[in-house]
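Recap from last week: sequence in, structure out.
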Amino acid sequence: MKRQIYRQLPGFNCGECGYTNCTQFAAALVAGEVKTTSCPFLLQDRFKESNEQVNEILSGKTWDAVEDAEDAEEEAEIIGLIDHLAADFVLSPLRGEPSCREDLHPFDIGIRADIGDILRYRPWGCPITHFAEVLAVAPGIFTVHVVGPLHRLGSEMDWTDAGLCMVVGFEGVVTRGDMPDVGATVRFLPEHCMMGKVHAGVIVHSEGDRVRIEGIDLKVW
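Predicted C-alpha coordinates:
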Protein backbone atom coordinates (compact mmCIF):
# COMPACT_ATOMS: atom_id res chain seq x y z
CA MET A 1 0.00 0.00 0.00
CA LYS A 2 2.80 2.43 0.85
CA ARG A 3 4.31 2.17 -2.61
CA GLN A 4 0.97 2.70 -4.31
CA ILE A 5 0.34 5.81 -2.21
CA TYR A 6 3.85 7.10 -2.88
CA ARG A 7 3.16 6.93 -6.62
CA GLN A 8 0.31 9.42 -6.15
CA LEU A 9 2.28 11.95 -4.09
CA PRO A 10 3.79 15.08 -5.70
CA GLY A 11 7.31 13.80 -5.02
CA PHE A 12 8.86 17.16 -4.12
CA ASN A 13 10.37 15.91 -0.82
CA CYS A 14 9.91 19.45 0.53
CA GLY A 15 9.41 18.50 4.19
CA GLU A 16 6.38 20.75 4.68
CA CYS A 17 4.38 17.74 5.92
CA GLY A 18 6.83 17.29 8.78
CA TYR A 19 8.60 14.29 7.25
CA THR A 20 11.97 14.22 5.51
CA ASN A 21 10.62 12.94 2.21
CA CYS A 22 7.52 11.68 0.44
CA THR A 23 8.43 8.05 1.16
CA GLN A 24 8.23 8.69 4.90
CA PHE A 25 5.00 10.65 4.44
CA ALA A 26 3.47 7.71 2.55
CA ALA A 27 4.44 5.37 5.40
CA ALA A 28 2.87 7.74 7.92
CA LEU A 29 -0.35 7.84 5.90
CA VAL A 30 -0.53 4.04 5.89
CA ALA A 31 0.12 3.97 9.65
CA GLY A 32 -2.68 6.48 10.23
CA GLU A 33 -0.29 8.96 11.83
CA VAL A 34 -1.15 11.80 9.46
CA LYS A 35 -3.77 12.89 6.92
CA THR A 36 -3.35 14.01 3.31
CA THR A 37 -4.12 17.58 4.41
CA SER A 38 -0.61 17.73 5.88
CA CYS A 39 0.75 17.94 2.33
CA PRO A 40 0.12 21.47 0.99
CA PHE A 41 0.55 20.32 -2.60
CA LEU A 42 -2.19 17.69 -2.36
CA LEU A 43 -4.57 20.53 -1.48
CA GLN A 44 -3.89 22.25 -4.80
CA ASP A 45 -6.24 21.77 -7.75
CA ARG A 46 -3.51 20.26 -9.92
CA PHE A 47 -3.14 17.38 -7.45
CA LYS A 48 -6.86 16.97 -6.71
CA GLU A 49 -7.04 13.63 -8.52
CA SER A 50 -3.94 12.37 -6.71
CA ASN A 51 -5.44 13.37 -3.38
CA GLU A 52 -8.62 11.46 -4.18
CA GLN A 53 -6.62 8.41 -5.25
CA VAL A 54 -4.63 8.40 -2.00
CA ASN A 55 -7.80 8.59 0.08
CA GLU A 56 -9.38 5.76 -1.93
CA ILE A 57 -6.32 3.59 -1.38
CA LEU A 58 -6.39 4.33 2.35
CA SER A 59 -10.09 3.47 2.52
CA GLY A 60 -9.43 0.12 0.85
CA LYS A 61 -11.45 0.82 -2.29
CA THR A 62 -8.51 0.20 -4.61
CA TRP A 63 -6.59 -2.27 -2.46
CA ASP A 64 -7.00 -5.07 -5.01
CA ALA A 65 -4.75 -3.15 -7.42
CA VAL A 66 -1.83 -2.85 -5.02
CA GLU A 67 0.18 -5.83 -6.22
CA ASP A 68 -0.10 -4.82 -9.87
CA ALA A 69 0.82 -1.24 -8.99
CA GLU A 70 3.93 -2.36 -7.12
CA ASP A 71 5.06 -4.48 -10.06
CA ALA A 72 4.53 -1.54 -12.41
CA GLU A 73 6.51 0.68 -10.05
CA GLU A 74 9.49 -1.65 -10.20
CA GLU A 75 9.42 -1.80 -13.99
CA ALA A 76 8.65 1.87 -14.65
CA GLU A 77 11.35 4.10 -16.09
CA ILE A 78 12.87 6.44 -13.51
CA ILE A 79 12.43 10.00 -14.75
CA GLY A 80 13.62 13.20 -13.05
CA LEU A 81 11.08 15.95 -12.37
CA ILE A 82 13.20 18.88 -13.57
CA ASP A 83 15.03 17.75 -16.71
CA HIS A 84 12.81 14.74 -17.50
CA LEU A 85 15.96 12.66 -17.91
CA ALA A 86 16.05 8.93 -17.27
CA ALA A 87 18.05 7.63 -14.31
CA ASP A 88 19.69 4.23 -13.93
CA PHE A 89 18.49 3.89 -10.34
CA VAL A 90 17.08 5.61 -7.27
CA LEU A 91 19.54 6.17 -4.43
CA SER A 92 17.83 5.82 -1.04
CA PRO A 93 19.17 6.39 2.50
CA LEU A 94 21.08 3.71 4.33
CA ARG A 95 18.70 1.77 6.53
CA GLY A 96 17.59 3.76 9.56
CA GLU A 97 19.01 7.04 8.23
CA PRO A 98 16.94 10.09 7.14
CA SER A 99 18.65 10.81 3.82
CA CYS A 100 21.51 9.66 1.62
CA ARG A 101 24.90 10.60 3.00
CA GLU A 102 26.62 13.47 1.23
CA ASP A 103 30.24 14.60 1.35
CA LEU A 104 30.52 18.39 1.21
CA HIS A 105 33.55 20.51 0.35
CA PRO A 106 32.92 24.17 1.31
CA PHE A 107 34.44 26.76 -0.99
CA ASP A 108 35.23 28.70 2.18
CA ILE A 109 38.06 26.62 3.65
CA GLY A 110 37.70 28.44 6.96
CA ILE A 111 34.37 26.78 7.82
CA ARG A 112 34.52 24.91 11.12
CA ALA A 113 31.92 22.44 12.43
CA ASP A 114 31.79 19.44 14.74
CA ILE A 115 29.86 16.18 14.60
CA GLY A 116 26.20 16.89 15.39
CA ASP A 117 26.33 20.51 14.20
CA ILE A 118 23.91 21.77 11.55
CA LEU A 119 25.27 23.30 8.36
CA ARG A 120 23.33 25.66 6.14
CA TYR A 121 24.65 25.55 2.58
CA ARG A 122 23.81 25.64 -1.10
CA PRO A 123 25.21 22.86 -3.28
CA TRP A 124 27.14 24.05 -6.32
CA GLY A 125 24.71 24.01 -9.27
CA CYS A 126 21.57 23.73 -7.11
CA PRO A 127 19.23 26.67 -6.37
CA ILE A 128 17.93 25.17 -3.10
CA THR A 129 19.35 26.07 0.31
CA HIS A 130 19.98 22.90 2.34
CA PHE A 131 20.37 22.15 6.03
CA ALA A 132 22.35 19.10 7.10
CA GLU A 133 23.65 17.43 10.24
CA VAL A 134 27.37 16.71 10.36
CA LEU A 135 28.18 13.00 10.74
CA ALA A 136 31.94 13.06 10.22
CA VAL A 137 34.70 15.60 9.67
CA ALA A 138 37.83 15.16 7.55
CA PRO A 139 40.24 17.75 6.12
CA GLY A 140 38.14 19.86 3.75
CA ILE A 141 35.18 17.45 3.87
CA PHE A 142 32.00 17.24 5.95
CA THR A 143 29.91 14.06 5.71
CA VAL A 144 26.28 14.97 6.36
CA HIS A 145 22.64 13.96 6.42
CA VAL A 146 20.26 16.44 4.82
CA VAL A 147 17.65 17.45 7.41
CA GLY A 148 15.70 20.12 5.58
CA PRO A 149 15.47 22.55 2.69
CA LEU A 150 14.05 26.07 2.73
CA HIS A 151 11.20 25.41 5.18
CA ARG A 152 13.79 25.33 7.97
CA LEU A 153 14.50 29.03 7.50
CA GLY A 154 13.04 31.04 10.35
CA SER A 155 13.10 28.10 12.75
CA GLU A 156 14.91 28.21 16.08
CA MET A 157 17.50 25.70 14.91
CA ASP A 158 21.10 26.88 15.27
CA TRP A 159 23.35 26.40 12.27
CA THR A 160 26.71 27.27 10.78
CA ASP A 161 26.52 29.00 7.42
CA ALA A 162 28.85 27.04 5.12
CA GLY A 163 27.88 29.03 2.04
CA LEU A 164 28.47 27.45 -1.35
CA CYS A 165 29.62 23.82 -1.21
CA MET A 166 30.66 21.22 -3.73
CA VAL A 167 28.92 17.88 -3.20
CA VAL A 168 31.74 15.47 -3.95
CA GLY A 169 30.15 12.18 -2.92
CA PHE A 170 26.91 10.33 -2.18
CA GLU A 171 26.37 7.11 -0.26
CA GLY A 172 23.16 5.12 -0.02
CA VAL A 173 21.35 2.02 -1.23
CA VAL A 174 19.98 1.23 -4.66
CA THR A 175 16.23 0.67 -4.26
CA ARG A 176 14.95 0.88 -7.84
CA GLY A 177 16.72 0.22 -11.09
CA ASP A 178 19.80 -1.77 -12.01
CA MET A 179 22.65 -2.40 -9.58
CA PRO A 180 25.69 -0.65 -11.10
CA ASP A 181 29.23 -1.97 -11.47
CA VAL A 182 32.19 -0.35 -9.73
CA GLY A 183 33.81 2.12 -12.11
CA ALA A 184 30.61 2.74 -14.06
CA THR A 185 29.45 6.28 -14.82
CA VAL A 186 25.81 6.42 -13.77
CA ARG A 187 22.76 8.61 -13.68
CA PHE A 188 20.96 8.41 -10.35
CA LEU A 189 18.05 10.08 -8.58
CA PRO A 190 18.64 10.78 -4.86
CA GLU A 191 15.42 9.95 -3.04
CA HIS A 192 15.68 13.05 -0.83
CA CYS A 193 16.28 15.53 -3.68
CA MET A 194 13.54 18.17 -3.45
CA MET A 195 13.92 19.05 -7.14
CA GLY A 196 13.74 15.44 -8.24
CA LYS A 197 16.82 16.11 -10.35
CA VAL A 198 18.89 13.34 -11.91
CA HIS A 199 22.57 13.45 -10.85
CA ALA A 200 25.60 11.83 -12.46
CA GLY A 201 28.70 10.29 -10.94
CA VAL A 202 31.05 7.32 -10.83
CA ILE A 203 30.57 4.23 -8.66
CA VAL A 204 33.70 3.86 -6.53
CA HIS A 205 32.47 1.20 -4.10
CA SER A 206 29.58 -1.23 -3.77
CA GLU A 207 28.66 -3.80 -1.16
CA GLY A 208 25.34 -5.58 -1.53
CA ASP A 209 22.87 -2.85 -2.48
CA ARG A 210 25.01 -0.14 -0.87
CA VAL A 211 27.01 2.13 -3.16
CA ARG A 212 29.31 5.13 -2.97
CA ILE A 213 29.29 7.61 -5.83
CA GLU A 214 31.91 10.30 -6.44
CA GLY A 215 32.60 12.85 -9.16
CA ILE A 216 29.08 14.25 -8.72
CA ASP A 217 27.68 16.37 -11.54
CA LEU A 218 24.25 17.97 -11.96
CA LYS A 219 24.86 18.61 -15.66
CA VAL A 220 23.56 15.35 -17.10
CA TRP A 221 23.42 15.00 -20.88
